[in-house]
Amino acid sequence: MTSTGQLNTLRPSHPPARLVTDLVSRFDLAVTGELAELDGLLLTGITLSSKSVQPGDLYVGLAGVHAHGAQFAADAKAKGAVAIVTDARGAALAAPTGLPVLVTADPRASLGALSAWVYGTAVNPPTLFGVTGTNGKTSVSYILEAILRQLGVLAGLSTTAERRIGDLAMVSALTTPEATEVHGMLARMNEAEAEAVIIEVSAQALTRHRVDGIVFDVVGFTNLTHDHLDDYHTMQAYFEAKQPLFTPERAKRGVVITDAEWGKKLARAATIPVVTLSTYPGQAADWYAAILRETIDETRFILNGPDNQSVTTSIPVLGRHMAENAALAVVMLVESGIPLAEIKTVLDRDGGIQVYIPGRAERIENSGPAVLIDYGHSPDAFTSTLDSLRRVVDGRIIMLFGADGDRDPSKREEMGQIAARLADVVVITDFHPRTEDPAAIRAVLVGAARAAVPGREIYEVADPREAFRKALSLATADDVILYAGPGHEDYHEVGGEHLPYSARDDARLALHEFGWL
Ligand SMILES: CC(=O)N[C@H]1[C@@H](OP(=O)(O)OP(=O)(O)OC[C@H]2O[C@@H](n3ccc(=O)[nH]c3=O)[C@H](O)[C@@H]2O)O[C@H](CO)[C@@H](O)[C@@H]1O[C@H](C)C(=O)N[C@@H](C)C(=O)N[C@H](CCC(=O)O)C(=O)O
Ligand SMILES: Nc1ncnc2c1ncn2[C@@H]1O[C@H](COP(=O)(O)OP(=O)(O)OP(=O)(O)O)[C@@H](O)[C@H]1O
């Protein structure tokens, strides 16, 4: 994989140059200062972070939770910004820089359209896939990319883990990038001649206009379960944040898993053509997926659709939920116009879906107790993985996990309860405490686990490295350790700091130390 070096964003190498005067007239911006100053002024990029300004950029100063972006206008100018778009408050903050200031009432709401125009992403777009839902977005995105690759189609990918096109990749900060980055990334992927682009769409992305300026060809919905209630407060509000993705302003067609009530509700509320997919027998749906065989490393399933269409294949990852994700990806591809027969041909040829999903039920080595590193950090993610493990493991399930600070505290008790009910041994540790007191987070998890199953073997070990070694010290070769939380990540966030920590690398090291490797 080639990294993008110092870049923290993917951008086109040869962006079009646009006249600032065209921007002003097209978006009806109010100019503070002399209009004549804008004559002939060209811009070649757009960003909302002073830290990522490149020469020739339009800098957008947004009012944020902690600061107003216009406060950083001088920094943006020093890095080569040619003009600033901001609101009235930002105009006053940016005035001392002497940069041309272009004012609009709600710059965040304009960001998608501005970025699409700057980078020209509406012209000849690739086939665009959007994936939403509480859990499974990253997995479905990787599966879509993998099947497209098997079909010989080059696809760009934007997930929680990474943004990638071919060999060019960068680590992601957010699940869905800000609109300026989304359109820069799309332009770069267009340059690389991507025929398709897959974007994970979080609820926050929809609420904060991050995918504005895009009309997806096909959007997919996995599920809606308890998470992000710090942002949305009720499940209904969380649902309403996702629902706009299934409207003509944002997508042409949709595929919805209707196993649970929220999916059924979304299929009814969608104002674009939607096909439904279920994994429960007896449910009325257009497509139906059934599990044929489960092992710790592979899940085999059959997918049946309208007109007696059918494919039987497998995904090299644990879990019924991963088969659901795979089935959703296949139906999304069919909805994009690829016949199921073509998909079946390549899957049969290759012996199944050839996918690697970093940090999702990822098996570390193949010797000693099975160690699975998983990005699960919500009650439903815990349930899905633990239920699947129980069906395939002979020994005990040792579950190691923590709950992240500064993120929806209302899910913590349920996470503790589920771990105690569905695992045999529970080890509770720290996971990104951020600005919260880690001991207080652990206390909630331990308390909930103890209350749920009195007598359950439960350990509390603050340091994640020591906690993993505690789990390993308890394991025999028949047991499995599920380490839920860190997944693909390579840091542990404490206070405002990212401390280097890879659960995958540390697990490998510990397996060596204990003589299993
Ligand atoms: C709540 C939220 O969404 N916050 C986002 C917001 O931060 P903020 O309003 O606090 O920004 P701020 O620090 O006040 O700064 C205001 C402006 O000044 C700019 N600035 C700031 C400092 C500086 O030196 N230079 C500069 O230009 C910032 O870029 C920003 O435009 O704007 C920032 C810049 O784009 C985002 O990084 C930040 O996401 C934070 C990190 C975040 O945690 N967001 C989470 C809630 C999120 O979006 N999660 C979803 C879902 C994940 C999932 O499914 O699990 C996601 O898509 O990632
Ligand atoms: N379809 C599913 N149903 C329930 N749980 C799932 C499903 N798919 C994955 N999971 C669980 O959720 C975890 C996160 O999966 P994934 O990263 O694919 O979801 P996501 O929606 O992208 O989450 P995030 O936005 O937090 O990255 C997995 O590691 C697994 O534990």
Automatic annotation (TrEMBL):
Residues 44-90 form the Mur ligase N-terminal catalytic domain. Gene3D superfamilies: Mur ligase, C-terminal domain, Mur-like, catalytic domain, MurE/MurF, N-terminal domain. Its cofactor is Mg(2+). The modification N6-carboxylysine is found at K242. It comes from the Bacteria. InterPro entries: Mur-like_cat_sf (IPR036565), Mur_ligase_C (IPR004101), Mur_ligase_C_dom_sf (IPR036615), Mur_ligase_cen (IPR013221), Mur_ligase_N (IPR000713), MurE/MurF_N (IPR035911), UDP-N-AcMur-Glu-dNH2Pim_ligase (IPR005761). Its main location: cytoplasm. GO terms for molecular function: acid-amino acid ligase activity; ATP binding; magnesium ion binding. ATP binds at G133, T134, N135, G136, K137, T138, S139. Its EC number is 6.3.2.-. Keywords: ATP-binding, Cell cycle, Cell division, Cell shape, Cell wall biogenesis/degradation, Cytoplasm, Ligase, Magnesium, Nucleotide-binding, Peptidoglycan synthesis. Pathway: Cell wall biogenesis; peptidoglycan biosynthesis. UDP-N-acetyl-alpha-D-muramoyl-L-alanyl-D-glutamate binds at L48, S50, T175, T176, S202, R210. One of its GO terms (biological process) is peptidoglycan biosynthetic process. Signal peptide: none annotated. Carboxylation is probably crucial for Mg(2+) binding and, consequently, for the gamma-phosphate positioning of ATP. It is found in: Cytoplasm. The keyword Phosphoprotein does not apply. Residues 131-332 form the Mur ligase central domain. Residues 359-486 form the Mur ligase C-terminal domain. Belongs to the MurCDEF family. MurE subfamily. Catalyzes the addition of an amino acid to the nucleotide precursor UDP-N-acetylmuramoyl-L-alanyl-D-glutamate (UMAG) in the biosynthesis of bacterial cell-wall peptidoglycan. This is UDP-N-acetylmuramyl-tripeptide synthetase.
